[in-house]
């Protein structure tokens, strides 16, 4: 679960970055940053030693991300080499002007 939390944090940081390049319509489209995540990615997750984590660990996995629900959400499925699996959704809420995400994992 901690590995997936780190992955989600990294994803959200990535989404928070400004849209580089493109025309003004891309810059004003809050879904454009989500589009950069679509595809298949190899992931490396490093858990540093901490009070809640007695030893540093590194995990590898693969993540597949695609648009769903008429391009209103991106959906991700991740499988780590240690057997950990996760499924998540991210979207942009026009009313609150914020990204929302949900994660489900084993």
Q: What's the topology here?
A:
Blueprint: H1 2-16, H2 24-27, H3 32-35, E1 39-47, E2 57-68, E3 73-80, E4 85-93, E5 98-105
Antiparallel strand pairs: 1-2, 2-3, 3-4, 4-5
Helical percentage: 10-25%
What order do the helices and strands follow?
A: HHHEEEEE
> How many helices does DSSP assign?
3
Which consecutive residue ranges, at least 5 long each, have pLDDT under 50?
A: 12-20
Going across the biggest sheet, name each strand in turn. Answer: 1-2-3-4-5
| DSSP, total strands | 5
Number of domains: 1
Radius of gyration: 15 Å
Based on secondary structure, the structural category is alpha+beta
- The global form is elongated
Largest sheet descriptor = 5 strands, antiparallel
- Give the averaged pLDDT, no decimals: 83
Percent in strands: 35-45%
Q: Give the end-to-end Cα distance, rounded to a whole number of Å.
A: 7 Å
Task: Write up this protein.
It contains three helices and five strands; from the N terminus they run H-H-H-E-E-E-E-E. The chain is an alpha+beta fold and 106 residues long. It has one domain. A five-stranded antiparallel beta sheet has the order 1-2-3-4-5, with helices on one face. The chain is elongated and about 45 Å long. Mean pLDDT is 83; it is low at 12-20.
How would you summarize this macromolecular structure in one to three sentences?
By secondary structure, this protein is of the alpha+beta class. It has helices at residues 2-16, 24-27, 32-35, and strands at residues 39-47, 57-68, 73-80, 85-93, 98-105.
């Amino acid at each position: 679960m901690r590995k997936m939390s780190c992955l989600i944090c990294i994803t959200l940081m990535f989404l928070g970055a400004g849209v580089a390049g493109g025309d003004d319509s891309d810059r004003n489209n809050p879904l454009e940053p989500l589009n950069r995540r679509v595809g298949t990615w190899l992931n490396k997750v490093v858990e540093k030693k901490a009070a809640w984590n007695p030893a540093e660990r590194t995990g590898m996995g693969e993540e597949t991300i695609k648009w769903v629900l008429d391009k209103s959400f991106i959906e991700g499925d991740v499988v780590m080499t240690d057997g950990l699996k996760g499924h998540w959704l991210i979207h942009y809420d026009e009313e609150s002007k914020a990204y929302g995400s949900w994660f489900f994992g084993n």
